[in-house]
Amino acid sequence: MDKRRSRPVRPAVRCALAGVMATVAVSSAWQVVSAKSTTAVASAARGHLKARHHHAVATEADNMKSVTLRRGDTLTVTLHGGWSTPTSSDQKVMRDSGMKPMFVCPPNAMCATPSPGPTSTTSATFIAGSQGTATVDASRAPSCPPGRMCPMYVQIYRLSVTVTP
Asked: What mean pLDDT do residues 27-55 have?
């Protein structure tokens, strides 16, 4: 063997070997994680594992419908088009999560303060508390410019929520 040639090759071989070892280590770690995840998914599919808490989402399409949740589950109600902030009829059953309601200002609009307008979006999150039934309610009315005739009506949003143990 030629010593001049073997010296420059050694660092390159070490570098290549280190790269191969790192790839094998990452691949092995991924297989372990994948195996655990696959086992958990397979067990869940057989009904052995249950998630502790679920998150449900409701929109205008769910108006006058009902949903069943378990204690600790969360529910986010997102309404588009000038709805008031959704509220719960029974804070013991469905309590406000404490997150401030979210109002989204429409594009190209000048929103100084968040307020429900005809094209705004409002959202509220609730946590299922004690067992029972509550309703999540919101309303909206037409937004008319001053001095113009305006129809007098109120539209109601109501979602019935049942909380089980």
From this structure: 43
Residue 161 burial by Cβ neighbours in a 10 Å radius (0-12, 13-18, 19+): buried
Cα–Cα distance for residue pair 44/25, rounded to 1 Å: 28
pTM score = 0.59
Give yes or no: residues 34 and 90 share one domain: no
Q: Work out the end-to-end distance of the chain between its first and last CA atoms, rounded to an integer number of angstroms.
A: 77
Q: Phi, psi at residue 49, to the nearest 5°?
A: -110, 140
Domain count, the chain: 2
Residues 99 and 32 in one domain: no
What is the pLDDT at residue 99? Answer: 73
Does residue 153 share a domain with residue 84?
Answer: yes
**Tens-digit pLDDT profile for residues 83-103:** 999 999 999 999 998 876 555
Residue type for position 32: V
**From residue 127, how far is each of 46, 97, 106 by CA, in Å?**
28, 6, 28
Do 24 and 67 belong to one domain? no
Both tokens of 54, joined, read 């679920």
